[in-house]
Write a structure and sequence with these properties.
Elements (H helix, E strand, L loop, with lengths): L1 H15 L4 H16 L4 H20 L4 H35 L14 H9 L7 E2 L2 E2 L8
Antiparallel strand pairs: 1-2
Helix pairs in contact: 1-2, 3-4, 3-5, 4-5
Length: 143
Amino acid sequence: MFLFGFLPLLLLIYLTVRGRANSVLLVFSSLFYAWGEPLWVLILLLSVLVGWIVGRRIEQYRGRRRASAVMALSVAFQILLLFHFKYTGFLLETVRSLTSIDIPFWDPGLPLADGMKCLDATSGQPAPAIRKSGFASDSQEWS
């Protein structure tokens, strides 16, 4: 289904829509992700939205201390999100085994790619910018 349906449709639309290529990739990536894990798309999109807003604010406050504070809040948000999905179940199981207190908890597991997205968002390294001429190199200024 992917090779003969989804991928050709993506490529057809991606190659015909010039100014909105990133939007096409965002929509198709979200659809592909939702195909396997529909509940996690909202969490992933929330994380991406927070990263985008933070990036805009850092640019707005460039050269001022507020930019560092905004970045610190973003890193804290991304790490808390990762911590919740990756370690909350482990911590509650440890508390249960040590204290015999039954703490109800639904362990949803870690959403696919959320760990990598979180690490990417907190690394401070921007993803490659796509320009009309192709990918931006390290020597090109980010816009």
